[in-house]
């Protein structure tokens, strides 16, 4: 298969490309990535060394550029697309929604237009549980839960999901939408909870826990999410939506304590800070449909996953350091400076 992956220099995309190329000898991947602050070509240095240029090609560019996408489809005889590219950080979307609308909404539509014009066989759109909004103490999101996004990030992802749905209904484009819970694992950008807490704890800096720390997320190891996306690509029904989850609901404070325990650092580093505006209280996923139709089951339990992840970050301090640009530090200082 000849696959175009977007956002492959980000956290999940880089894990997906590495895993797919190592297990499918007949696969070629073109990675279209704009290299925003969150994209790092270095995260795929091993893949470039092992597979470029025969089975892996990197193309720097914006998914909002339909002409570039068409050019790549033609040049590499692309058969399918997996769209990971997005602006992904809720806190950034609160300070400035514009890049989220540009990439997640307009960018997705531009890519859909190019896919339709070329006649792409399958378009997998990677989305999130956050499009469903927030849960109370009981219940789980199913694929039929109405979309009720609460942050500019999740609203832009919901907008993209609806455009993907429309491309399927209106033009018959073969689309599949996946919605997954919170990922963790190697190569996650240190603005998200787990790598952020790791990197601050290692430096003996205060760990900012929003609100009362009782907000619940369902954590899935990135390898399990990648397997789900692969199953959706190969076996998903045209037009279908599939939920993926890790069956590991945890209050944030428990996650932070687990990281401190793994590092042998004191809980006195924890600081409860001003809550995130519009902070969703709880996410939980019902992924019965993906289990039944695709054979999806998460393999990692959280204890093993977090131990492996902390070990990976310990061994890859140089990667963690290298991705923290000046602009990244500026945003972090401003955001956390205002919450202490
Ligand atoms: P990330 O922020 O780590 O990486 C995003 C990548 O997209 C970066 O490499 C960036 O350079 C690239 N990109 C951004 N704008 C682009 C554009 N206009 N054109 C081309 N490339 C662009 O994100 P991630 O955590 O790997 O998430 C990947 C996808 O999975 C996103 O669509 C996200 O909404 C979804 N998702 C993430 C999670 C999670 O927990 N991280 C959970 C569910 C769904
Ligand atoms: P995050 O990793 O940003 O993912 P999302 O908001 O997409 O779920 O945050 C995970 C949870 O951790 C969320 O409830 C917000 C919380 N959080 C903190 O308490 N402190 C922080 O510094 C960050 C980044 C997140």
Describe this structure in words.
There is one protein chain. By secondary structure, the protein is an alpha/beta fold. It has a domain at 2-186 and 220-247 and 283-300: NAD(P)-binding Rossmann-like Domain (Rossmann fold, 3-Layer(aba) Sandwich). Helix content is 45%, strand content 17%. The strands form three sheets. The chain has a seven-stranded parallel β-sheet with strand order 3-2-1-4-5-6-10, with helices on both faces. Strand 5 (122-128), helix 6 (152-171) and strand 6 (175-180) form a beta-alpha-beta unit. The protein is globular and about 55 Å long. The termini are far apart. Thymidine-5'-diphosphate binds at residues 90, 182, 192-193, 196, 208-210, 215, 217, 252, 276. The site of nicotinamide-adenine-dinucleotide has 31 residues, from helix 1, strand 2, helix 5, strand 5 and strand 7.
């Amino acid at each position: 298969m000849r696959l175009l992956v977007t956002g492959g220099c980000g956290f999940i995309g880089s894990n997906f490309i590495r895993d797919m190329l190592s297990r499918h000898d007949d696969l070629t991947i073109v990675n279209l990535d704009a290299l925003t602050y969150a994209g790092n070509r270095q995260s795929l240095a091993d893949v470039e060394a092992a597979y470029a240029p025969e089975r892996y090609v990197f193309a720097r560019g914006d998914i909002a550029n339909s002409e570039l996408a068409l050019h790549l489809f033609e040049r590499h005889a692309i058969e399918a697309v997996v769209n990971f590219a997005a602006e992904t950080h809720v806190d950034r979307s609160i300070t400035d929604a514009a890049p989220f609308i540009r990439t997640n909404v307009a960018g997705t539509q531009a890519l859909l237009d190019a896919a339709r014009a070329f006649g792409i066989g399958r378009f997998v759109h990677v989305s999130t549980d956050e499009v469903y909004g927030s849960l109370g103490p009981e219940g789980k999101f199913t694929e039929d839960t109405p979309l009720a996004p609460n942050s500019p990030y999740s609203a832009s992802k919901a907008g993209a999901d609806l455009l993907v749905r429309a491309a399927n209904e209106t033009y018959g484009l073969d689309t599949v939408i996946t919605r997954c819970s919170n990922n963790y694992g190697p190569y996650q950008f240190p603005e998200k909870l787990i790598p952020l807490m790791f990197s601050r704890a290692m430096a003996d800096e205060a760990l900012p826990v929003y609100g009362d720390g009782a907000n619940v997320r369902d954590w899935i190891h990135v390898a399990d999410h990648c397997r789900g996306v692969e199953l959706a690509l190969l076996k998903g029904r045209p037009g279908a939506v599939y939920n993926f989850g890790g069956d590991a609901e945890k209050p944030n404070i428990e996650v932070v304590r687990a990281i401190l325990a793994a590092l042998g650092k004191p809980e006195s580093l924890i600081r409860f800070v001003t809550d995130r505006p519009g902070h969703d209280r709880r996410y939980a996923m019902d992924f019965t449909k993906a289990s039944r139709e695709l054979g999806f089951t998460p393999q990692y339990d959280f204890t093993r996953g977090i131990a492996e992840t902390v070990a990976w970050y310990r061994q890859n301090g140089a990667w963690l350091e290298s991705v923290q640009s000046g602009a990244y530090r500026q945003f972090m200082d401003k955001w956390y400076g205002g919450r202490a």
